[in-house]
């Protein structure tokens, strides 16, 4: 669980306790969030895991089942939470999230407004960025989504840093109480240009706004509206390319052995008796790095703008 320490920073307890949220890691594409409860068990293809065996162990521990299978118990960082949370809406992933936090210039102590909350993927990372003295105020027009988000923030220990409210920001704008007090604003709305006049009133002088839109037509309308009160308008598309790194065996000519995924066919040297020399010599191994075949494509466009300073 995340613990709020006003004298230091948001950090994780080192030992797992009853009631803690842990990320159970089976493999890189198979993780789940589990609340630790003494007397409960987790059952999967590796066997049965007793929660009582987890209590008192440090985060990152490798634990074994009754069959000898194992999983890792990881702390619920915002990065891992993004991968395991319930998708109530389309979410932002790590590449976009890190870019947003950097270009919004969010640091500890900042006041940030967000609309809409959605599944809370970005909200969790915003909270860590503003901790321990800042705060994130997030709004969603859907009451049930807002309630589910509050429950998630309680699970991850971030409720002291996040306030969730139900409000139609496109129709009503942001509450007047934030006027001139906000360092950064993030919009994830179907028609973000409707919320821009209100956002401009909320921001401090030189404050920054970011709007996330999946379609370029939304970007065009947003940018047109921003021109009246904002400057330094820029739009980015973040494309992440991952690589697979693994050990492979090489043949005598230094090529990847036939039969490996994606390998090229290679000639074999013929021996005097007509046989092949491959197989008589042990194959050395090397590390191969190649682009992943499951690279994530377009997610959306990020449009940033800075509020004009009064002359």
TrEMBL record:
GO terms for cellular component: nucleus; tRNA (m1A) methyltransferase complex. It is found in: Nucleus. Keywords: Methyltransferase, Nucleus, S-adenosyl-L-methionine, Transferase, tRNA processing. It catalyses: adenosine(58) in tRNA + S-adenosyl-L-methionine = N(1)-methyladenosine(58) in tRNA + S-adenosyl-L-homocysteine + H(+). It is an enzyme of class 2 (transferase). SUPFAM superfamilies: S-adenosyl-L-methionine-dependent methyltransferases (SSF53335). Its EC number is 2.1.1.220. GO terms for biological process: tRNA methylation. Its main location: nucleus. Pfam families: GCD14 (PF08704). InterPro entries: SAM-dependent_MTases_sf, TRM61_C, tRNA_MeTrfase_Gcd14. PROSITE patterns: SAM_TRM61 (PS51620). S-adenosyl-L-methionine binds at residues 119-122, 140, 168, 188. Residues 69-306 form the tRNA (adenine(58)-N(1))-methyltransferase catalytic subunit TRM61 C-terminal domain. GO terms for molecular function: tRNA (adenine(58)-N1)-methyltransferase activity. Belongs to the class I-like SAM-binding methyltransferase superfamily. TRM61 family. This is tRNA (adenine(58)-N(1))-methyltransferase. It comes from Dillenia turbinata.
